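pasting for ref
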Amino acid sequence: MYGRLTDKEKIERFADAERVQLQHELQQAEHEKAMLENRISALLQEFNNKDMLQTSVFYQEAFGLFINGNLEQALVVLDDTKLQAKKIEWQHEQKKLADTFLLKAELLQLKFDFESAARQFDEAIEINPDANTYFAAAKFHQFLNHFQQAEQLYCKALSLASSNDERAKTLNNLSVLQDLQNDYSGASSGYRESLGIYRDLTKSNPQTYLPDVATTLINLGWLLRYFTLITERLDTRFALLGDRCIEVLFGIRSCYGTEMQFTPEKKSSQSNNQANHGSDKKILFIQKSCKSFRIHNPTFKII
């Protein structure tokens, strides 16, 4: 008898536990149902305010299935593969529209309407902010000597470059810009990196990229020639500049490596003392003469 009571108690405890579990599951289901109803209500309210004529065919088809209770079929219509294909198609259309704005910008430049052209470049960037669009806008502002804006646009194009070709041409043009702003260390580094990329590209397509190798070599060569002329002028004034000339020479050499060869002659301490007295004036003279050389040798080429 005792054993039967024990079994009955066990059954009752089990039934109670199962009942509690079922009640918990029922409450959870009711909560989820309420959340779903609220979400559907919110969606329907959102759809009521939407102009369906302004939506895609996919959107309209899936929405119709959803309204009729066919949620799974609606999701089939919105298959990831279909949506990705649509996304690529949309991106192509965006690029075409941006290219149209770029064309208008180029035509406006022929009329010397640079203000309107600048707006077209801004529109193109807003529509299709890729490396090529930023690159085109940077060339435009570089042409107008808007150096700061052009540099920002080139840097943005460089960060978005998706191919070696895009990176190389952006580096070359950015280096020209840095060169003109007296950032010679940055220009030298950019030219060398661009040259290395173009040399690699010529291995598979020499007909296309050999001209770019030549252009970059010309730019780097003019940069180094410029500094050769600077050092020659400095050497001739070594006696007047004294120890400060060594400081200037080694400052240049640290930026451009061992290609820059300096051969100053040793002078007496008395000459050096005389040079220090007027060295600031002499350095200013050299800076002006070097600047004059750059102004009268506009040989750097952008791509």
